Amino acid sequence: MNQKKIGSFLKELRKEKGITQEEFAENLNVSGRTVSRWETGVNMPDISLLVDIAEFFNVSIPEIINGERKSEIMEKEVKEVAEAMSNYAGAEKSVILKRVKLISIIGLISLVIGLVMEAINYDSMIPIYECMKGTCLGLGVGALATMVLYTTGILEKIKNRKSKQMKIVAIFGSGIIAICIIVSLILTIIEFLS
């Protein structure tokens, strides 16, 4: 216990109430000098008086012993927690926004390149051209699908699932991608050989 802090708190409470040390002392049946010693931190109020002091100033006994109002402490803690949550949400939002921008840019560039390649319709026997066009269009559509999953929150729900379920989804998704690549390569080879 910090006697000076308690004394300052009692003095603050008395002044808030707009009474003198003598008036406060009279209410508790003690001398004005006793109240003065409490407020300077020289002495502490007797334990038996704490209940009367708490009732008189409409504060709790722990507030008197701590030398400060709980509500001020709680308001400060609540404010600090709210600020920390706000900072965290801002940082999280910034990270998500950067990811969304990156995916959007990659998808848009890929889609534009793929559509330009489709519009040119370069009729050649070069299978790499068709493979590049398909890859660009696939990246564009994939980015669009990822953006839909990201913005609707489905991707976050999938991410928060248990690790076993995540492994199944990852294996399934990787399998589909591998099958698409293999089929694309086979079709490209068949077209080249025809």
Describe the protein.
The structure is a single chain. The protein has 194 residues and is mostly helical. It has two domains: 3-68, 434 Repressor (Amino-terminal Domain); 92-193, no CATH class. The chain contains nine helices and no strands. The model has no long low-confidence stretch (mean pLDDT 79). This is Transcriptional regulator. GO terms for molecular function: DNA binding. The chain crosses the membrane at residues 102-120, 132-156, 168-190. Keywords: DNA-binding, Membrane, Transmembrane, Transmembrane helix.
Which descriptors would you attach to this protein?
194 residues; mainly alpha; 434 Repressor (Amino-terminal Domain); 2 domains; 9 helices; 0% strand; DNA binding
Secondary structure elements and their pairing?
Layout: H1 3-17, H2 21-28, H3 32-40, H4 47-57, H5 61-66, H6 70-120, H7 127-152, H8 154-160, H9 163-193
Helix pairs in contact: 1-3, 2-3, 6-7, 7-9
Which band does the percent of strand residues land in? Answer: under 5%
Mean pLDDT, as a whole number? Answer: 79
The coarse overall form would be rod-shaped
The number of helical runs is 9
Number of strands: 0
The structural class is mainly alpha
> What is the CA-atom radius of gyration, in angstroms?
37 Å
Helix content: over 70%
Q: Give the end-to-end Cα distance, rounded to a whole number of Å.
A: 92 Å
Main β-sheet description? none
